[in-house]
Design a protein that fits this description.
Length: 41
């Protein structure tokens, strides 16, 4: 989803500056890593 969001913003407003805040970056990293450390069962 992140890639499609960036492409949509660039397409709609090429002069816009895309900024990511620390809270959401950490949240995405945390949720992205949850699946790789989960135990089966």
């Amino acid at each position: 989803m992140l890639g499609s969001y960036i492409r949509a913003v660039i397409e709609a407003s090429p002069q816009a500056r895309i900024i990511f805040d620390r809270f959401h970056v950490q949240r995405l990293a945390h949720h992205g890593s949850r699946g790789s450390t989960a135990r089966p069962g």
